[in-house]
Amino acid sequence: MNSFIKKSGMALCAVSCLAGCSSAQQTPEEIQDTMEEKLNLTEQWDKVFPQSDRVNHTKVTFHNRYGITLAADLYIPKDVQGKKLPAIAVCGPFGAVKEQVSGLYAQQLAEYGYLTLAFDPSFTGESGGTPRNVASPDINTEDFCAAVDYLSTRDDVDPERIGILGVCGWGGFALNAAAVDTRIKATVAATMYDMSRVTANGYFDADDNPDARYALRSRLNAQRTEDYREGTYALAGGVVDPLPEDAPQFVKDYYAYYKTERGYHPRSLNSNAGWNVTSPLSLLNMPILTYIGEIRSAVLLVHGQKAHSLYFSQDAFKRLQGENKELLIVPGASHTDLYDNREKIPFEAIGQFFDRYL
After folding, report:
1. With CB atoms counted within 10 Å of each terminal CB, which end of the chain scores lower, N or C?
2. 36-68, pLDDT tens digit by residue?
3. What keyword terms does UniProt attach to this protein (predicted)?
4. Alpha-carbon span 282 to 136, nearest angstrom
């Protein structure tokens, strides 16, 4: 046994030495070139919001630990050369791209003095990963942690002052990332969805029973067979179009954002053909908020008083521990008001929260 341990230890040391020697001979740029896929990024300004003249904007890429290269917009306040800045990674909503809501939040926070990174999740937008249009509770949580990797290694970022902000479905993934990544010092979840819960239970937990989940699993697994047979992945469709007259108000609100000039973007899943039909399978089996009660860093949950999704934040807040956790309910605001309504989004309160903890 001792002989085996010694041999194994020597082998591990040898591998470690080789890895260390190899890394020592490469610059960070060379390492990045070998680890990241070359993405075809649009350099023109194609956001659904106007560009700020107070912020510098560039396109960047970074990779997660699954080897997927992510595309991002980097926003840096002007006239801050030579300073190490606090930084915030931003993503969401679920099915959106960085040219929509997350970019708006990132640019605004950059105006407040933060270096910010709005990124497309794996398999969507300009980011890499195949097949396209698929979600994963593990990989999408990892996307936030990978953004922290990237920010932590920038010369102009203070690695001890990094936060994240998730919108809608990525609010839930942000909480999940904060539960696992101790480098994250502050987290904001705006108009949050718990994607595991809504997938497994339906809206307002109306289908929270084994028979309903079994029926859903049966449909999704039948689609898996069909996808494999056809060699392609069926798409579920984005926001319903045309809009039925009897659609719930929150569906009408989604339509008003994603399907009109207000928020439409050609790379957005919600604006177009949507997620793969089988995407919910992983969400059904993986409750993402299991350990949020163990988050020790600061958390701010922001939600609209009139939002259909308010119960997600209210219930999550009950599970958070510590005096550095806050729930801010915005009077009169719907779910999508916190996408782009500058009169309703409490940017000042969000900025003050990050100022306090970063």
Report:
1. N
2. 889 999 989 999 999 999 999 999 999 999 999
3. Hydrolase, Signal
4. 6
